[in-house]
Amino acid sequence: MSTKDNEKSYNVVRSEPVVKAYAERLKVLKKAQEFAAMEEIPKAVQFYSQYLNILAQYFDVPESSLSPAFFNRENDLAEMLLISHVYWDLGKAYDRSPNLTLESIRCLKQFVAFTIGFKYQYANSQMVKKFVRQKLAHNPKAFKDTYEKIRIEAKGCYIATLCYGSLDPRTIALRDYRDTVLSRYNLGKVFIHIYQVISPIFVRVLITFPFLNRFFEPLLSRSIGLYMKISRISLPQ
After folding, report:
1. Whole-model pTM?
2. Where does the pLDDT of residue 205 fall: very low under 50, low under 70, confident under 90, or very high at 90 and above?
3. Closest Cα to residue 227, out of 161, 144, 134, 160?
4. Is the pLDDT of residue 122 over 60?
5. Domain range annotation of the chain
């Protein structure tokens, strides 16, 4: 995400300190992650908040108004994943204090906003699921609600969601094939069940070894393209 591109997109005149802080933002985030790893939560919260405020100042909005709309869905995917995890960690940190319940819920909502529809959605949903199962939350309903919002969007075509995102036409095409073709036949229902059992494992492999996507995604795209051609569904160019 280059300074030049964002100045052109948002027409914001930024001061030199703001631009400099933005250039150093990942160093701030790294400090936050280091403190989080050492369970020094107050310091982690301090640096996480500083990182988010740097982004907010760069885009000239309140931190609470940060949105995926400020980022390029492809070029900035890695940073949006980081932002989602920042809000996730803040949501957990604020959950520790009864006085900060509303702030925890707000951060969880931001976590959802930076998760739904992106390629890492399934991975994030599994992260939340694990936390919920561990029963570590002081406000478990907020975390269960967060998981339900992500799970509802991510369920089904796990592999396509990872490769393209849940709202991509190719993912939607696969869901359509599952719901309108496969689900009509007993053998198709068996295939759907097997797919739902093994695909999360396969997704974890793809997340762990992302270079495999270079080999798998073209095969998946050709299969989807064939179905869409037969069904006379056109992909956007």
Report:
1. 0.68
2. confident
3. 160
4. yes
5. 3-154, 158-230
Rounded to an integer, what distance in angstroms lies between the CA atom of residue 125 and that of residue 151? 6
| pLDDT score at 235 | 43
Q: What is the mean pLDDT of residues 198-227?
A: 70
CA–CA distances in Å: residue 82 to residues 30, 85, 180: 11, 5, 37
- The predicted pLDDT at position 207 comes to 66
What φ, ψ does residue 2 adopt, rounded to 5°? -85, 150
d(CA 110, CA 127): 16
Cα(93)–Cα(96) distance, integer angstroms: 6
| Lookup: tokens for 29 | 């985030």
CA neighbor of 80 nearest in space, from 110, 105, 44, 59: 110
Write the DSSP string, 54-92. HHHHHHTS-GGG--GGGS-TTTTHHHHHHHHHHHHHHHH
Q: Which pLDDT belongs to residue 228?
A: 58
DSSP state of 210: G
Helices (H), the chain: 3-10, 16-23, 25-37, 41-59, 77-95, 101-113, 121-134, 140-154, 158-164, 169-180, 186-208, 213-230
d(Cα 75, Cα 180) in Å, to the nearest integer? 34
Q: Is 67 left (phi over 0), alpha (psi -120 to 50) or beta?
A: beta
- Of 152-156, 158-162, 197-201, 223-227, least confident by mean pLDDT is 152-156
